[in-house]
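dude i think i finally got it to work??
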Amino acid sequence: MRSNLISNGQLLQKGYTMKMEGQAMKVFDSKNRLILKAPLSKQRTFKINISVIEDQCLLSETKSENWLWHQRYGHINWGKLKQTF
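look at this
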């Protein structure tokens, strides 16, 4: 992946706060801890490089057949799923 975007609106909805000053943006969690600092680039965007320290594989299991079909159909909305069956 060459680039990805982070939505400030989504960060706000999830309880994060942002502060932009001095040619940088800082993102804080709900306990006011700094979790990200990004410098302003020449294209007026904030560029960060994120490295994964350790890969993890997560597994989940669902016992509901409705959820199983929801996932099999590529997360089709529930209304359409009900029409299918």
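The chain has a mean pLDDT of 82.
im so relieved honestly
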